[in-house]
Design a protein that fits this description.
Elements (H helix, E strand, L loop, with lengths): L2 E10 L2 E11 L4 E5 L6 H7 L5 E9 L2 E2 L5 H8 L2 E4 L11 H6 L8 H5 L5 H14 L14 H14 L4 E5 L7 H18 L2 E5 L3 H7 L2 E6 L2 E6 L6 H7 L3 E2 L7 E2 L5 H6 L1
Parallel strand pairs: 3-8, 3-9, 6-7, 7-8
Antiparallel strand pairs: 1-2, 1-4, 4-5, 9-10, 11-12
Helix pairs in contact: 5-6, 6-7
Length: 267
């Protein structure tokens, strides 16, 4: 068990966003956290990285108690966790190669890292990660010249280059077209299966969660109301998770209008 939370409460200031949740994550799982916007999915994901304030309960990540962890130990823990952002978080003017190589900085001595000096075996390792995500033909291209899907695959390769035990992905495909989104999900699945990296991802797209993930956690109003296999995610449960929201299988959710039909007709 790599992650375990008990009666966990997360939030900002005094505001509770994630409310008394219990869950665990085993090594090698590919988990999707689903639910409409504003239910606490991103807050929960960032809590696994020690970014969100713990207002109650307990959480252990890779053997570290995040409620009592020191700053130095937290920095070491984050080196064992890859994080993939919705906005890619790449250095736009750097090449694909250098962006991916930056994931290795925690494993390199300071001077070689500063002057971007890599050994032959490190270049071979970087090229392997490029091939895994299918971006090797753009190795020397600047990242600001890539498409959104290509940038996200570079971000995944950079996370894998970190050699993490867990990858956290915050809505990695929400801004991508369906073809690019599927390519990114294929890449995450490949990293999960090829390297045995545990993946926990927030997704709006219900179909992708069912297709790619081994387990789904459904949230509503800051609480976990489903935790199980995708096959057990039945219509009634989906309705409960997305209560007050309209589900779009291949896109984000939209809030339902509760105006009377006559008012809707005039809108």
């Amino acid at each position: 068990m790599q992650i375990q939370a008990q009666q966990l409460v997360l939030g900002y200031g005094r505001k509770e966003v994630v409310k008394q949740v219990d869950f665990h994550v085993n090594k090698g799982e590919f988990i999707s956290i689903i639910g409409p916007s504003g239910v606490g999915k991103s807050t929960l994901l960032m809590g696994l990285n020690g970014t969100t304030a713990i207002l109650g309960g307990q959480i252990s990540v890779l053997g570290e108690n995040l409620a009592t962890i020191s700053n130095a130990a937290l920095k070491q823990l984050r080196a064992r966790i890859g994080f993939i952002f919705q906005s890619y978080n790449l250095v736009a003017r750097m090449s694909v190669l250098d962006n991916i190589a930056s994931g290795m900085l925690q494993r390199k001595a300071l001077l070689p890292a500063l002057i971007k000096l890599y050994r032959r075996e490190e270049y071979e390792e970087i090229f392997e990660y490029m091939k895994v995500v299918g971006i090797e033909h753009e190795a020397l291209s600047r990242c600001d010249r890539l498409s959104g899907g290509q940038r996200q695959r570079v971000a995944i390769a950079r996370a894998v280059a970190q050699k993490p035990e867990v990858i956290l992905a915050d809505e990695p495909i929400s801004s991508l077209d369906p073809i690019s989104a599927r390519r990114v999900m294929d890449t995450l699945k490949s990293a999960n299966q090829r390297y045995g990296i545990t993946v926990v991802s927030n997704l709006h797209q219900l179909d992708y969660a069912r297709e790619y993930c081994t387990r789904v956690i459904g949230m509503h109003a800051g609480r976990i109301i489903f935790d199980g296999a995708p096959a057990d995610l039945h219509r009634e449960t989906i309705d409960e998770i997305y209560r007050g929201a309209q589900v779009q299988p291949d896109g984000p959710t939209r809030q339902k209008s509760f105006l009377p039909a006559a008012a809707m007709a005039q809108a």
